[in-house]
Automatic annotation (TrEMBL), chains A, B:
Subcellular location: Cytoplasm
InterPro entries per the UniProt record, alphabetical: AB_hydrolase_fold (IPR029058), Galactose-bd-like_sf (IPR008979), Pept_S15_Xpro (IPR008252), PepX_N_dom (IPR015251), PepX_N_dom_sf (IPR036313), Xaa-Pro-like_dom (IPR000383), Xaa-Pro_dipept_C (IPR013736), Xaa-Pro_dipeptidyl-ppase/CocE (IPR050585)
Gene Ontology CC: one annotated term: cytoplasm
Gene: pepX
Family, as annotated: Belongs to the peptidase S15 family.
Biological role: Removes N-terminal dipeptides sequentially from polypeptides having unsubstituted N-termini provided that the penultimate residue is proline.
Record organism: Ligilactobacillus ruminis
GO biological process, one term: proteolysis
Any one Pfam family match given in the protein's UniProt record, by short name: Peptidase_S15
Superkingdom classification of source: Bacteria
Record protein name field: Xaa-Pro dipeptidyl-peptidase
């Protein structure tokens, strides 16, 4: 267990005094108080669940000051000092003496755990200062002490503060002074400028809003807006039937001379769309909604003075229009909600009455949140520069749909979803289908529309075309005006890391602030981790961006924060993805299976005579039908066997390994593989993996649930599970990154190169980016193969590939650690 | 997908009219209304999320009446009939046309899915009747339509009903007319007659109460009480260190002549304990609490007029006393809360003031709920006959702690927890340790107390002794006065099925009503399953038992309800665990590895000459150290290999198999194995498994999450995930049941028989009970082995066992299915 806090804001003593007294922890004369009395009174404040002083005293006696004395016993005879203060503080943070910290020497334990502490406690000033910092310190349950007190009811007395005194901030972060039992749930219908279902009427878009009751008293609050195409339901049974068969052969592309300009997407001019006549305006909506499909970060902020807004967009249940899977129309359907929140677009209380409703309760500052498609739409919205969007927290987001469903001129599925494609996802999210009485009128149009998407995505060639160019948000990055937080899993093979890497790199060239969090998970949220104060970081960020609080968020949060892949619960702050002092290293992959520095000209060091026998390296793509089928039905086994030896895949790939490293190194950024290859056919594809070889305990693939429902988002409000990546059983290796290339896309992704059977061609392929520490004693491996059972088509064809054994190179950025 | 409803109560038409009008679905003259108008008005009631009529009409148009017409379009031209009524009904139940039902023939789909429907709809009476039943019908999301409407806000208008009109029942079940945003959360301290920490003062027990606001207006509500020793936290780090080493040899027991009377537990006479002086009485508690460790069944009922009470008992955080792991004191600490709820015991607002607080809001009817230790304490409480306890819903409960931590004179751990024992669990739940300032005063006493438990449990012999006799609730079953619901997983190898089997059998002899639900899960709750209306069943049961509603619950709920292990989502109602028409069948296990009917005297049918060569069957217990360690670290692999061939375990067990059955059979009750065996040492143990052999898809070991947070416990209230067992990948076999015996406990569990090396003894061993269907084409297998890697000690000793090849018999109850 280790605690990493980045949103613990240093504060001047005057600020501490002021904020503590605002929260009624201390009175004006606190500095004059007797040290023990001050301490006792502060501790008594830590039992808000007890309503009378006698009972608070009972609770106080449950805290140990030393191995032999409870706090009341200690206070009777001795005076609080640094050690005793933190011995008690650790208990308040829910750490347990003996097993989790040493009560005789809490500071040592705190240092080991990474828990903040002061170094001096001699007078009331020190005590007040230390107590302030303690309130902002993370405990064992993934929250600050103040959050914990809030969960016990501390802020109940603040619910009734006049709105002029709300929200309440402490240590730069908004506090739960909003009564979540009185939240207002309402639905509005935002009128877009779209007509994606071509019925001649502007598509109306349903938005679900949750806002604090205080808005009714005049408080203007910002909105956390999550655009989730899934949140009105999905058509799982329908899409199961339309998922594409991936057990098909790779198709040779007819060579062409296409240029980018020929496939470039250009928006069609807009046609006039009929809008509703306004028949009046009201302040209250006419519709409520049951439990929404929420994000717990939004839930947390709801208790702290932020509204939450959920909208699913065109073609979802209760909205008009059709899904388009990532096109400009979907972006526009996303920004329409922001425009309404910012006062620049109309919404109605229903779909027919023409009664308008404004977002009169909103302070016109909006942040977008959410993961995957949700984060993707946040990114998409940001690239429009829409007014009112102050920031996005874009998690595991697609930045270019080609990088989601395609790679290197190939159809490459997100891992775990073979056969999925843009059309499948469009259908899956087309929850308007569930309104059967409405759907029956648009069924035909929808089928035609969907067929167009199927044609546009072009599974035959896998090339980058106009369809994909229309779905490439990177083209519009320069329009981004808001500051951006990105979160991505370095093991996310659903939305592959290139998506965030390209966005991150593009943002570095713009005059906006960007922050990047890279974790060791797959396709997950990280706001419920024990080791990281992600929620606090976002609270700090959102309090600054949406309420304009000057809390130093931009400086406090690291530019790049990366979770260590070797040690549990360890996060590193960095300036950039690739460190300035990283070296670009070129390794040659020798015919005898070694990865060596370019300068090591001969193989003799490894017992060879310097003239390796095999100047050509061959591998095949086909498998016995039985092995093939076994791998199709067990992709995990295929992944394992590919990097192992003595398996049915031995002749289906070439493996190179470095010698064991004598110290830890970190591989950064996107590696490049260059080689000369020939295919036995006039078409072909190569896949690549970098592997960390070395039997070792590694972080689990999925985080462990430390405690179910252990995180309260507020007092008697929603909960989250407390999670953490733990070291799992030892494994012999781990895949670091991968890449794919169609041999007919050597030049670029839109134009098909020629290829002849049995003729060498040279290729350069950039793999997915990485940030991976290889431990001393481990080896780096490179694997070249063809069919990727989990991602590419699987033709099980008799194709052989031959590499020029002397020409394979791997270029990587390496940071040597001391 | 299949829906199984047992709590759908048949109702007279007059009742239907009355209840529908009470819920404001219809007016007095409904029967006179035009059929279409009546239908439309009923449908408009199904959109409580829309607050005005115009908007309800918009929603109505989202329903399809036929393949080509929405409901409004249909109504304009045609009149509702049976088909159209159910085509729309199925949409209200959230089934989707095309993929989930045939809109042209909904009745056929409903029959296939098991969804209730009427067979005639010709006039308003039929329509009203059908609509009533529809409201009580389960949909795709595991809830009734009326629950679904409640989740959309239907009952908001009923929150303000005068308490004289609350609770509201419909179809025999309580409805969510209680405002969960106004629940009262309070803590009281119940004064017990115990002094388990020997401080001379009565142990005070913390209870957390959640009750509807309506109680403040005079409503008396029953209480659902969950006694969970875990709910104040557990000492996981502490117990990790004290978990017992199971890689130890089996110990020979010194033969003795102990009788039961010599080990029988007798309670010590009670000594006087100092009670608090009452210094006054108040109506409101002084303490609240954050998010409790809740059971979603309680959450569901909270919205329906039942209070929830959680208490952890002696030795848990904020309570006094010590944990005893299942002793009489723990039972008494459990019933103390009930006595307070029933008005027969004192509670205080804190631990020192002497200010009393009564459960004035309680109607003195209490039900206990919860799974595992929670269900165990419910069973324990029931065996006291305590006044006020009207029923228990005891899930996956221990009925005898010997059957939890021991078996057949052996230390046998709950599966997945090797090395756990009563002392470990006592320490784990001793959350009083977390009150460090209090704990430091009782540390020594606690350590002495714990050492006594360790001695008492006696891991050396594994015999039944006074310690275990004190923890055998079955001895007191005759005291049970309340009706009992039992729920248990047929694959629960944590709390093994014998626990529920023995309780079930004992209850059949008592004048109480008992109901048994046997599911195919392991150690899980089943209140969130799509296929079963368990929550409705419990609502029906609790409305009857705690509010006295005459709803036919006792007749409607089957005596035994068992989930099919072959088909998905299929539940069978039965009269008893073992069907009356089941046959007791004796199979002989032949020297050549066959399981045959006793009458088949010779093996010749299988190609043998009738005189099998091997009259003795030998197997060893030891393994190569490497194999041993591999199995220790991968119990799943051991389980797999034991029943497979060509594994390191080939010589470590004897396997017999029946011929393939030509039709399905069901094995019922507890099988018995009889055999003659000799050990190569003067001690030894045997383990047994019955196996269902036959490569087939079987239900997954754990249920699949169909939809996260899809079940609302009420409007904007807590949620649960929707779960179901789905058929998983084909497996070659499945374990049905198992058993264990120490060869020195041939006579009984408390007395140690003598055993000489290499001398035959005869044994009878009753395995854990089962209720398992073997499909036609499958074979029944019996395996005899010694060390159970997951449960027994693992000495990896050089012991060989020899069976008399002609004397092994298996006795089972078999029901032949037609």
């Amino acid at each position: 267990m280790k605690i990493n806090q980045f949103a613990h804001a240093p504060a001047a003593f005057e600020t501490k005094l002021e904020e503590l007294s605002k929260l009624r922890f201390i009175k004006a004369d606190a500095q004059q108080e007797d040290l023990n009395l001050l301490w006792k009174n502060l501790l008594l404040k830590c039992f808000p669940q007890a309503k009378c002083l006698a009972q608070k005293h009972e609770k106080l006696a449950s805290l140990a000051a030393t191995k032999t004395e409870s706090v009341p016993e200690f206070i009777e005879k001795k005076t609080v000092n640094l050690t005793v203060f933190y011995a008690v503080a650790m208990q308040l943070l829910q750490f347990e003496p003996d097993t989790e910290f040493d009560i005789d020497n809490p500071l040592k334990s705190m240092d080991e755990l990474g828990v903040f502490h002061a170094d001096k406690l001699e007078d009331s000033t020190d005590l007040i200062s230390a107590f302030y910092d303690l309130l902002a310190t993370h405990g064992k349950n993934g929250q600050t002490l103040l959050d914990h007190l809030g969960n016990l009811g501390f802020f109940l007395d603040f619910y009734d503060l006049p709105v002029s005194e709300k929200p309440v901030f402490f240590n730069g972060k908004a506090q739960p002074v909003f009564d979540t039992t009185k939240l207002i749930f309402e639905v509005v219908y935002v009128e877009s400028d779209l007509d994606t279902d071509h019925d001649g009427k502007a598509d109306l878009l349903k938005a679900e809003i949750i806002r604090p009751k205080d808005t009714e008293e005049g408080l203007k609050v910002p909105a956390l807006y999550t655009a989730s195409p899934y949140n009105q339901g999905t058509n799982d049974a329908t899409v199961e039937a339309m998922t594409h068969n991936v057990n098909v052969k790779l198709t040779r592309k007819t060579p062409d001379s296409l240029t980018y300009d020929e496939i470039k997407y250009t928006a069609k001019p807009k046609t006039e769309i009929k809008k509703q006549t306004v028949n009046g305006t009201v302040k209250s909506a006419n519709e409520t909604f049951p439990r929404e499909f929420s994000y717990t970060l939004n839930d947390y902020m709801l208790a702290r003075g932020f509204a939450a807004v959920y909208a699913a967009g065109i073609g979802t249940m209760d909205s008009d229009g059709f899904r388009t899977c990532g096109s400009k129309e979907e972006t526009e359907s996303t920004t329409a909600i922001i425009e309404w929140l910012a006062g620049n677009r109309k919404a109605f209380i229903d779909k027919t009455s023409g009664i308008e409703i404004k977002a009169w309760w909103c302070n016109k500052h909006v942040a977008m949140t959410g993961k995957s498609y949700l984060g993707t739409l946040a990114t998409a919205a940001a690239t429009t520069g829409v007014e009112g969007l102050s920031t996005i927290i874009s998690e595991a987001a697609i930045s270019n749909w080609y990088d989601y469903y395609r790679d290197g001129g190939l159809v490459v599925a997100p891992d775990g979803f073979p056969g999925e494609d843009a059309d499948v996802l469009a259908e899956d999210c087309f929850s308007r289908r569930k309104q059967s009485g409405d759907f029956l009128h648009v069924k035909k149009d929808w089928e035609n529309h969907l067929a167009k998407i199927t044609r546009g995505q072009d599974r035959t060639t896998g090339s980058y075309n106009t369809f994909w160019d229309a779905r490439n948000y990177l083209k519009d990055v320069q329009n981004i005006k808001c500051d951006v937080v990105m979160v991505h899993g370095l093991n996310d093979w659903n939305v592959k890391p290139r998506n965030v890497y390209n966005l991150y790199n593009a943002l570095q060239k713009l005059p906006v602030v960007s922050k990047l969090v890279l974790h060791q998970g797959q396709h997950i949220y990280v706001n419920n981790f024990q080791s990281l104060d992600f929620t606090d970081m976002m609270n700090l960020w959102l309090s600054h961006k949406l309420y304009g609080l000057e809390n130093g968020a931009e400086k406090l949060l690291p530019n790049v924060l990366v979770q260590d892949n070797v040690k549990e619960s360890t996060w590193h702050a960095k300036d950039s993805w690739i460190d300035e002092d990283a070296d670009e290293v070129v390794l040659k992959a020798t015919p005898c299976g070694k990865l060596k520095p370019l300068s090591a000209e001969k193989c003799s060091a490894d017992g060879h005579d310097g003239n390796c026998h095999a100047k050509e390296l061959q591998f095949k793509d086909s498998l016995d039908q039985k092995d093939f089928e076994a791998y199709v039905s067990d992709i995990a086994k295929w992944k394992h066997d590919l990097a192992s030896e003595n398996t049915p895949l031995d002749s289906n790939r070439i493996v190179w390994k470095s010698t064991a490293f004598d110290k830890d190194i970190v591989l950064e950024g996107a590696p490049k593989v260059s080689l000369r290859v020939k295919s036995s056919r006039d078409y072909g594809m190569l896949s690549f993996m970098l592997i960390d070889y070395g039997t070792d305990k590694r972080l689990g693939e999925v985080p462990t649930t430390l405690a179910r429902k252990a995180i309260d988002c507020g007092f008697h409000w929603r909960t989250d599970d407390l999670m953490e990546f733990k070291l799992a059983k030892a494994t012999p290796f781990k895949m670091i990154t991968k890449g794919h290339l169609n041999l007919q896309n050597r030049t670029n992704l839109w134009h098909a190169d020629d290829l002849s059977a049995d003729e060498y061609v040279e290729i350069d392929v950039v793999l997915q980016p990485m940030l991976h520490r290889i431990k001393a004693g481990h080896q780096l491996g490179l694997i070249v193969y063809s069919t990727d059972m989990g991602m590419t088509v699987r033709g099980n064809e008799d194709i052989r590939y031959t590499l020029d054994g002397t020409k394979t190179r791997l270029t990587i950025n390496v940071k040597n650690l001391n």
